[in-house]
Amino acid sequence: MSAQAVTIALSGAGGQIGYAALFRLASGDLLGPKTPIHLRLLEIPQGVSAAEGTALELTDCAFPLLQSVTIDTDPNVVFEGANIAFLVGARPRTAGMERSDLLSANGGIFGPQGRALNDHAADDIRVIVVGNPANTNALIAQRNAPDVPAERFTALTRLDHNRAVGILAAEADVPVDSVSGITIWGNHSITQYPDLSHAIVAGSPALDMVDPRWARGAYIERVAKRGGEIIEARGSSSAASAANAAIDHMRDWVTGTRPHEWTSVALPSDGSYGVPNGLISSFPARSVNGQWEIVQGLTIDQFSRERIDASVTELLDEREAVNALGLIPS
Ligand code: NAD
Ligand code: LMR
């Protein structure tokens, strides 16, 4: 018997990540082979034609689970009844653009989208922000959606987490599924802290399995700058791996993380690990009964403390900047 249909909204549907995500969503990669899906695609006018092309191809795949695909430029229409929202479309930084211009332009996107989610989404809405600067865009959306529980707004650091797993597994020469206990802390930016203090590789502490100087030096830089490495190699930012990570994040949120394991999620802080309340920062997290829970009780040594604090300081600066621009209601 089929489950109840789920409405999935995705903004930036005509872009690269949209193209890499939509076919997987429609084929059941997110919610399994029994859950019918309605896709609601949000674009700006310039992106509508590309989204229409994607919609034609979705039809041509004849996915049994796909009940409908609609496209609109109005978030109030697209988010009507949405159970899940992937906020991918964002204003990229262009030459000569100041950081405040970028935050302001994105505030103009994520403020109205937050309000539209507040007014139109289903009661069980879950939101993941992918568009950069992802943590602060999520904060803007969340603060503009006062009727939606704050914890329903998250941002993508699962891509950083997956990168951290893949790069560690390659260094230790083990399969990826023998790596666990990695945490990405902080912002989805080069200040992020990929932390191997509690990581396990093939049953042993990661810091015994690889050179600890590499783990606390070149490794951190490699993971944190992987997005830039990909832009340089591909000529555009990561798309398939970003879509894959966003789907991993949402699937784990809905269906639960594997027993005794955790992943990395940017979510509103409850003050854990000294991260100021409300800041959308990346933590070690498990999904239990459909809700993210921050993993508690990890020891944080001086090296980790300094790196977590540095990334959190960047997030506080971003919050102050969007506050000063009037993008988050007090
Ligand atoms: P893209 O340029 O290929 O596509 C973006 C799409 O968003 C375009 O079709 C554009 O028309 C649309 N768009 C812009 N403003 C919009 C709005 N207000 N409403 C709806 N749609 C809008 O970019 P992409 O490669 O798909 O990347 C999208 C975003 O994801 C970028 O901000 C990128 O930096 C970010 N990203 C984040 C991560 C992460 O790990 N958090 C990883 C990769 C990329
Ligand atoms: C990534 O981590 O791949 C992206 O956030 C890079 C970018 O700037 O789009």
Automatic annotation (TrEMBL):
It comes from Lysinibacter cavernae. It comes from the Bacteria. Substrate binds at R93, R99, N132, R163. GO terms for molecular function: L-malate dehydrogenase (NAD+) activity. GO terms for biological process: malate metabolic process; tricarboxylic acid cycle. Keywords: NAD, Oxidoreductase, Tricarboxylic acid cycle. It catalyses: (S)-malate + NAD(+) = oxaloacetate + NADH + H(+). Catalyzes the reversible oxidation of malate to oxaloacetate. Pfam families: Ldh_1_C, Ldh_1_N. NAD(+) binds at G12, A13, G14, G15, Q16, I17, G18, N106, Q113, V130, G131, N132. This is Malate dehydrogenase. The active site is at H188 (proton acceptor). NCBIfam families: MalateDH-SF1, PRK05442.1. Its EC number is 1.1.1.37. PROSITE patterns: MDH (PS00068). Belongs to the LDH/MDH superfamily. MDH type 2 family. Residues 7-147 form the Lactate/malate dehydrogenase N-terminal domain. Residues 157-322 form the Lactate/malate dehydrogenase C-terminal domain. SUPFAM superfamilies: LDH C-terminal domain-like, NAD(P)-binding Rossmann-fold domains.
